[in-house]
Amino acid sequence: MTEPRKRPPKKPYKGKKPGADKLKPGADERLKKVFSSIGVPEQKPFKPDTFQEKALEAIQHADCLVTAPTGAGKTWIAEQAIRRTLAQKGKAWYASPLKALTNSKYNEFSEIFGHENIGILTGDRKENSDAPIIVGTTEILRNQLYDAMHRGKDLDTDFVILDEAHYLGDEDRGVVWEETMIYLPVRIPMLLLSATIGNADRIAGWLESIRGRTCHVVEETQRPVPLYPLFMHPSGTLFPLLSGQKSRKSNILLYKKVLKFINNKQAARFRQFHQLPKMGEILRVLNKYRLLPAIFFLKSRADCDNALLLCPKSAVNDSPDRKEKRCRRIDELVSATPHIADHKQIKFLKYVGVAAHHSGQLPAWKLLVETLMTEGLLDAVFATSTVAAGVNFPARTIAFLNSDRFNGREFIPLTPTEFHQMTGRAGRRGMDNIGFAVLIPGKFMDTRLVSKLFHAPASDVYSQIKINFSMVLNLLLSHTPEEARVLLEKSFATYLLTTKGRKKKFRQMFGDDPDLLWHEFLRHLDFLKEKEYVTKDNRLTEDGRWASQLRIDHPLMVAEGFRRGLFPNTDPAILSGIMASFVNERETDDESIPYSEIPKPLLKRFETINEGLNPFSIELLRSGFKAPDLYFLPALTLYLWARGVPWDKVLEISGMAEGDQAMLILRTADNLRHIRNIGHVFPKAAETAITAIELILRDPIISTHDL
């Protein structure tokens, strides 16, 4: 596998402006037959695929793990299973990893089953929670399982669907998925829907071992729309990427003209402007061969935004009617969130039919882009790789400019799973006979690597379970330590370490000790005893019981703040600001804040908390646990927003991208909800938290459509 690399800093662009040299559209002779198949498939009455029927049959008497390419029709299985559950007067729970996906499924299922039968639980939204069908985030489902165990009651549902089940292997959130699978009562059948997984049988074997019921694996490898890989030569000519012939090692060989190009060190390359080619010219080539709409996967937010500047002044694939329809639709959609009507990129949406989509943007703006793309009103979206996971707006073509991605620390090569998620967006079911993936060779494109990824098997999913204080406190609500040990022994991590199979990579990640989780549990337990959240005989103290309801990233730090009377009880703006400091995960430059912009009440409270919790923070660190660094700028950001300061003014002071500021606000609201949950102990703080949530969740964070 290619080693991770670090990129050199960007150099100022010198030379003539990109676009001066026009590409000459061309296509290799071998592509005539391929391009002739482009078009809309004949509309036929719906008939379930074999894998869909198998899954629906399996779930009647067992658990079922369905792995299939993006767009293959996994949701249909869920719909039919829910329909069957309702017919039997039962209840169903549909868990999704992302709030945006959950909202989308809520709208979709409301159309199918009726609004009166659907409830939604995301933290931001809680509607019709007694409905027979609940759509929510996996964290909410996990928390309901904690509460059910504490009350000694069963979860009030008869069927659970875990969508995007490969999140089990997500480094940050996989623990929530694993806990959910472990805690779910055996009586409740479980349907897991996933992108292709390399070790689906291992996951099924683990579930069978802990639940004592069969878990069928239903695998579908066939894409609903065939995929054809292309290579764009810097001259503007399109070639097949692959020859169709195999080497002795069973690798598909590169097409001879592509191989000749990449072996020629002197060959002309795409002219670069800040490492981006002339997007307008590329769109012109793709349009000539009916390869639009397209999603371009770029390496950074800045590249996505800069790509717009390299597009033409008008859409390459527009009729007056289409342009008028797009502008009218945009006006309709932005009416719910007036703030985005003045977005600096809206002119590209309206007049060029292109958009940027990345995490630095407001949720409302991203939803606007997704809607327009889904409705066929855009020619291109320039996006980071995050679009591939969970957001549903496919295109006829996806285009790669890099063979790696940035993981927050360094650039690493794309994995087969990441690559298949991206290419899964190519080809719209019912709208395309064929989808395309185009490689646009640049400085950071490893063509040989990408050619192998087209036929590489899906990556394995490994356990990401970690012991934390919130988990320990919540398990002790309803279990003795020995009972908790039994649960930990049911973990996917323990299964992988104690059963035969491919364990080498997992051992490198997790170590060789099958009792590691238990030892970590005891280490956390000892600290909780020392701080009197747990008694010597392993029962939660009163403080431990209410602290267990703080299901947040740093529950003990926040609990200590309340224990010591450090948190504000009556000022919602200050409480919002303080909680934002605990949510924030980025180092900020507090020294850059103008002294005139610093509110004295907030600063005084922040310094009191910082000084008051510093000894506890040191104790955590000395005991080998993490403790957050508290920064003032996030506190100031939320304080000003809660005080009614205009969005643009808060952005100017925070220095954040809109999407980052929105995420900070949304996560702060989540933390405030947990403070609301300890109102029986801190009633004034809980009331203040409720007010704070109302103050910070307003346009443009929450549109009028969401309220």
Describe this structure in words.
- With 707 residues, the protein is α/β, with parallel strands linked by helices.
- It has four domains: 26-39 and 225-453, 3-Layer(aba) Sandwich (Rossmann fold), CATH 3.40.50.300; 50-219, Rossmann fold; 465-543, no CATH class; 549-707, Sec63 N-terminal domain-like fold, CATH 1.10.3380.
- Helix content is 43%, strand content 12%.
- It is built from 28 helices and 20 strands.
- The strands form four sheets. The chain has an eight-stranded mixed beta sheet with strand order 1-11-10-20-17-14-16-15, with helices on both faces. An eight-stranded mixed beta sheet has the order 5-4-6-3-7-8-2-9, sandwiched between helices. Strands 12-13 form a two-stranded antiparallel ribbon.
- It is globular, with a radius of gyration of 27 Å.
- The protein starts with 25 loop residues before the first strand and ends in an 11-residue tail after the last helix.
- Mean pLDDT is 90; it is low at 9-20.
Roughly how many Å is the radius of gyration? 27 Å
CATH topology of the largest domain: Rossmann fold
CATH architecture identity of the largest domain: 3-Layer(aba) Sandwich
Shape estimate? globular
End-to-end CA span? 48 Å
Overall mean pLDDT stands at: 90
What's the level 1 CATH class of the largest domain? Answer: Alpha Beta
Helical residue percent band: 40-55%
The neighbouring-strand order within the major sheet is 1-11-10-20-17-14-16-15
Largest sheet: number of strands, sense, barrel closure: 8 strands, mixed
